[in-house]
Amino acid sequence: MSLRVSKAFAPALHSSGSRGSELHVKDKLRALKERKREKCEILYMREAIEKHSTVVDDHVLNCQAIWNLINSDIQTIATQLGIVTSFANPNLFHKRFSSLPRQYADLRTALQNYVNVLADTEYQRGFNILRFRWTRT
């Protein structure tokens, strides 16, 4: 004689006498909720990092443009020094060379304004929030 239990009745039989399996299910649910919360935090941090990385890319491009300007001026000065040493046209060199301090003063002012804007932007505050989120967890 064999005892057959229907499939619909088997889970009820198994769980009715087992308090341990109920706790096991609650632990699994708690673990799933914790994983979901961690996943949400990771997604939040990823979005923040992506947003800030585009800002950093923009700033790097700006710095690259400034470097290219300075490098171009250095090459111009080197070329003009070659002209002066060959005594071809010293007045032209003097005229071009005398305009450089004014150009660099303008560049200095623009860079100072750029730094001030960076210090006051939401992006700077965003990096501080991101640092807080990293250290908090």
UniProtKB/TrEMBL annotation:
It comes from the Eukaryota. This is Uncharacterized protein. It comes from Schizopora paradoxa. The lineage of its organism: Eukaryota, Fungi, Dikarya, Basidiomycota, Agaricomycotina.
